[in-house]
User: What shape does this take?
Amino acid sequence: MHNRSASADRNSRNPRNRVGGKNSFDRAPQRQRPARTPAPSLDRELDNMPVRAVPTVNSFEELGLSAKLCDELARAGIKKPFPIQSATLPDALSGRDVLGRAQTGSGKTLAFGLALLSRLDGGKAKPKYPRAIVLVPTRELAMQVSDALTPLARSLGLWCRTVVGGMSFAKQADALRRGVDLLIATPGRLSDHVRQGTCVLDEVAFTALDEADQMADMGFMPQVRAILDLTPVGQRMLFSATLDGDVEQLVRRYLHEPVTHSVQSAKASVTTMDHHVLLVSKEDKPAVIAEMAAREGRTIMFLRTKHHVDRLTAKLRSIGVNAGALHGGKTQGARNRVLGDFKEGSLPVLVATDVAARGIHVDGISLVVHVDPPADAKGYLHRAGRTARAGESGTVVTIVTHQERRTVARMTEQAGVRPTSTTVRPGGEDLVRITGARIPTGEPIVEQEQTKRPPRGGGHRNSGGGYRGQGGRNNNRDRFNPRRARSDRSRER
Assistant: This one.
């Protein structure tokens, strides 16, 4: 595990506030390690460990949370902790570093969020100096985390703000100048703020990394390491669905004797989730997709490319299915509107790329459709995690043509999933039974013109640090002239 004194020495040698600059990485000490037998991966270690029973906890009060937090949770209808929360909160509240492995939708956000807010309670942030940070891979996930934690932070008199790419840099800098207790950020945009001097990490006492394996998959590890090198050695928590590769190196380097909790295997599938492989011919595939999209209830359809997402969305709308597209090529305002409509229920079908797979945390999604099979087992589990959240039930369907059978069979086996294979045709009884498919109305969905909002006036304090997507063109860009990280331009989608 990581040696804290070594980290402190490293922090003192590196120049401060140079995330992403050449000094951040070029001068980092390179430790020579003797040749040795590779240690087993953390995933394998956790799989081989005896399963510890998660304590039965019936209320958050039993975990030692303050009355204010418990009251706010009750107002939101959250009264009983999920297993990952019951397992990790006692250690996190005591100040221990925590390593948590759990599937998407298992309640990880409150597991680290409640601990951070409890530890921050009673303090006050200085301008530009956040007291705690949460790093997440995508803008959508950052906003979801902010939506969950901001009301809780407000109940304690704490300021929770978000900095992500695609939003006004100037408004984010203004929020940081006013003082932020808990900062939720994507690595690229936080690097920009640190580099420009609008955010200083010298007083960060608590750090949480959410969906760390996706940050590794998206290439954010250099920025994440640079950010952690600039933070003092305080309490750190890392939550991830898998703990292999770069994530394992991150754990061993930056977490000090962490308490590990794993409520599920890395390959486990949620017990309330039904998995199906629908075998179709190429000729029938478009009609099968259309009938599934026309069903009742919230549905997410995943495709590989932005172009295919836009094309399928346009096709569905032309035959009477109210669908919306979500991918990295959309403006942040358009993405916010589509995701907001999907949450509210006015948009029943969301067509998205893989990049959005972990940024969509919406309750009540009853069907996930792999229109294009995912690239690997990890992608399958992340997509599937959009349904059967928080104890709800859901169905995951993979549409497979004859040429894709072997590849999909190998992938689902690696994911620890045993789907039911069924040959279906448009209008068939099996298709209706599994997915609730219906014939589309055929009446095109008319595009509604977006009404212009009146200019916002007054303080930026209530704007939530820009995480709601307000604000158009940044007129103060020249004043800050941030060097946009490549990740903000292409990876945070």
